[in-house]
Amino acid sequence: MLETLGIHFPSLIIYLVNFVLLLGLLYLFAYKPILRIMDERADRIRESLAAADQAREEAASSHEAIEEQLNEARREGQRLLDQAREAAQRFRDEEMDRARQEAETFVSRARSDIQRERDAAIEEVRANFGDLAITAAERVLRRTLDRQAHQALIEQVLEEGESLSRG
């Protein structure tokens, strides 16, 4: 019956044995190495994905560390600016105090010079006034005068006093 269909039974068995042998040889020499290579490749891909994940995590953590360092640098910069401002303000205050002290010293020295000049002028006026009084007394004693002569004498003494104080 199978022969009428063109199937020859001993050939079929030979073909079947050949197929099983070929399948066994392929399984031993091709399928196992291919599966092993595919497993190794899958392992490498898994490792690569794990390494990529780890690199991503490290990048994220290094990004956070960099952000923290930047924030720290900003804080440090702000602290340095604040210190510089404080130092500038202290310097300004010290210079203002020093200038104020110098001005006060100058004013004090000027006041003492003015006081000395004033005292000297008063002494000179006293000395001149004393001389004028002595001159007036001498003239009064030399002659007795009436009221008009007395007035003229006073005016003359005052004029002499003015000329002495100018000279």
Give a brief description.
With 167 residues, the protein is mostly helical.
Task: Considering the chains and any ligands shown, give keywords for the structure.
single chain, 167 residues, 95% helix
3D architecture notes:
The protein is mostly helical and 167 residues long. It has one domain. Helices cover 95% and strands 0% of the residues. It contains three helices and no strands. The mean pLDDT is 85.
Give a quick account of the main beta sheet: strands, pairing sense, barrel closure.
Answer: none
**Strand content of the residues, in percent?**
under 5%
Number of domains: 1
Helix content: over 70%
Structural class category: mainly alpha
Query: What would you call the shape?
Result: rod-shaped
Distance between the termini: 171 Å
* Helical run tally: 3
Q: What is the chain-wise order of helices and strands? A: HHH
**Gyration radius, to the nearest Å?**
63 Å
Question: Residue ranges: pLDDT <50 for 5 or more in a row?
Answer: none
Helix-strand layout with pairing:
Layout lengths: L1 H4 L3 H134 L4 H20 L1
Helix pairs in contact: 2-3
